[in-house]
Amino acid sequence: MGAAGRLEVVPATGAALAAALPDLARLRAEVFRAFPYLYEGDPAYEERYLHTYLAAPGAFVALALAEGQVVGASTALPLTGETPEVRRPFGQSAEFRPSEVLYLGESVLLPEYRGRGAGHRFFDLREAHARALGLPVTAFCAVQRPQDHPARPADYRPLDAFWRARGYEERPDLQTTMSWPDVGEPGGEETPKPMRFWVRREG
Asked: Which pTM value belongs to this model?
């Protein structure tokens, strides 16, 4: 299957989403192995995690499809349904109420399909979902890796400019920590990673 095939990004729910979960789990484990996440993923764990989006109120998933195959995906969930480490920075902020935030989980896309508009489509669909839920704030967090990290590719380009063009503001005052095993980490031990939020308010 070549990258020349038609790429479409569509919302997925119910049976269509359930059928895609195994492919989506493998995709997440593959894409997140790359810098900056360097995630030593387990597709079985990923599939269990993704079942959240089948039942959680207000959850949203978009799939990127090429010739019927899942090549990317993007997720969102009202912040009130997220884990404590994701909710905490907003709960401690005088500026935001967790009940007004749609948390944008992850967007993953195989490298050969990048640069074809899927990233914008992922944001368009999730921001439209936030409006449909009456949530005026969308937010996500990104891992912070040092500039001299030994696994940083020479041609690595962060997505900061893309996110700013979408109207998101980097918020050093909103930070959290998440843990996962880095690729090649001895014993597969989970270690904490600093995460920084980016936020957009509708209007």
From this structure: 0.92
Number of H-type helices and E-type strands within the chain = 6, 7
Confidence (pLDDT) at 122: 97
pLDDT, tens digit, 9 for 90 and up, residues 24-56: 888 988 999 999 999 988 888 888 888 888 888
What is the CATH topology of the domain spanning 7-201? Aminopeptidase (3.40.630)
Distance in angstroms (rounded) separating the CA atoms of residues 145 and 198: 16
Start-end of H helices in the chain: 14-31, 43-50, 52-55, 84-91, 118-133, 160-165
Q: Which long-range contacts (CB under 8 A, 24 or more apart) does 97-101 make?
A: 100/135, 100/136, 100/137, 101/135, 101/137, 101/138, 101/139
Burial label, 31 (beta-carbon count in 10 A; 0-12, 13-18, 19+): buried
Phi, psi torsion values for 25, nearest 5 degrees: -65, -45
